[in-house]
Specification:
two-stranded antiparallel sheet; rod-shaped; six-stranded mixed sheet; alpha/beta; 254 residues
C-alpha cells in the first residue's frame, strides 16, 4: 500500500470514528430527553392525582355551585278589614301568644246564609255561654267583607293541633254546597296572598282544616280538590300580578 492509499485509509477511519461518535451523542441526547419527559409526566401525574384524592376524600361528588337567591314578590297591602277584636276570655280569645306562623288554615262556617258580623258575634258570645271553644283570626262574609277577631300575635281556637303556629280564616257560605261566593273568594285570595308574604311562607303553606284533622272543612274544597288546587294557583297569580319585590313584613301589626 503506497502513501496515498495509506492516507486515504486513515481519513476514512477518522470519518467513521467521527460518525460513530456523533451517533452516540445523538442517542445519549434522545435518552436524556425521554428521561426528562417521563420525569415531567410523573410530576404532573403526582400533582393531579393528589388533587383528585383530596377531592374525593372530602366527600364531594360534584362541583358545588353557589346558589343565587331569587327575589320573591310579596303583596304588601291587605284587603280592607274591620278590626273587631273579641274580649279576652277562656272560650274564644285566651290571649295566648302566637310565637311563630308556619301556615294559614282555611275554614268554612257551616251555617249557610250567616254574615261575617253574625259569626264574629257568635265567637264573642262564647265568653258568656261557654258552650264550646271556637274562634278565628279573620272572618270573610258573603259580600266579601272582612272582620278581624283575634290579633295575629295570639292563637285562635280553630285548627286543633295547629292553633299554635297558624293563622285561621273562616269563610261564610251561601248554601249547603259550601262553595264560596265570588266576593268571598276574591277577598280570600287577596288575604292569603298578603299573609303568605307577611310571614315569609309559600303558597303550599296554605292548608285546609281537613289537612289537619280530616274534618270536612272547608266542605266544597274538600269534596272538590281540583277547586282547592285552583284556589292556590289563583293566590300565586295574584302575588305575581300585584306583588312587589321587597322584604316581607315582620308581622308586628294587629
Amino acid at each position: 500500500m503506497n502513501d496515498t492509499e495509506r492516507r486515504e485509509q486513515m481519513e476514512y477511519e477518522t470519518r467513521r470514528a467521527a460518525r460513530r461518535a456523533a451517533r452516540k451523542r445523538k442517542q445519549r441526547r434522545e435518552i436524556w430527553m425521554k428521561i426528562l419527559a417521563l420525569a415531567v409526566f410523573f410530576v404532573i401525574l403526582f400533582l393531579v392525582g393528589g388533587q383528585v384524592f383530596r377531592y374525593f376524600k372530602s366527600g364531594k361528588t360534584e362541583p358545588v355551585l353557589e346558589k343565587i337567591p331569587v327575589p320573591k314578590k310579596v303583596v304588601t297591602e291587605p284587603p280592607e278589614y274591620d278590626v273587631q277584636l273579641l274580649s279576652v276570655n277562656e272560650y274564644s280569645r285566651p290571649g295566648n301568644p302566637l310565637h311563630q306562623v308556619t301556615g294559614v288554615v282555611v275554614h268554612y262556617t257551616a251555617n249557610p246564609g250567616t254574615t261575617a258580623q253574625q259569626n264574629r258575634d257568635y265567637f264573642e258570645g262564647l265568653s258568656l255561654s261557654g258552650e264550646t271553644y271556637a274562634s278565628s283570626h279573620f272572618v270573610i262574609g258573603i259580600e266579601g267583607e272582612l272582620i278581624q277577631c283575634i290579633p295575629c300575635q295570639e292563637i285562635a281556637y280553630a285548627s286543633n293541633d295547629r292553633n299554635e303556629d297558624t293563622i285561621a280564616i273562616e269563610c261564610c257560605i251561601l248554601d249547603e254546597t259550601g262553595k264560596f261566593s265570588d266576593a268571598t273568594y276574591g277577598t280570600l285570595v287577596h288575604l292569603l296572598a298578603w299573609l303568605v308574604g307577611r310571614y315569609e311562607l309559600d303558597v303550599d303553606d296554605v292548608i285546609r282544616h281537613y289537612d289537619i284533622t280530616q274534618k270536612n272543612c272547608p266542605k266544597y274544597y274538600v269534596e272538590n280538590p281540583d277547586a282547592w288546587v285552583r284556589l292556590k294557583e289563583d293566590v300565586r297569580e295574584y302575588i305575581e300580578m300585584y306583588g312587589v319585590v321587597e322584604e316581607p313584613h315582620s308581622g308586628t301589626e294587629e
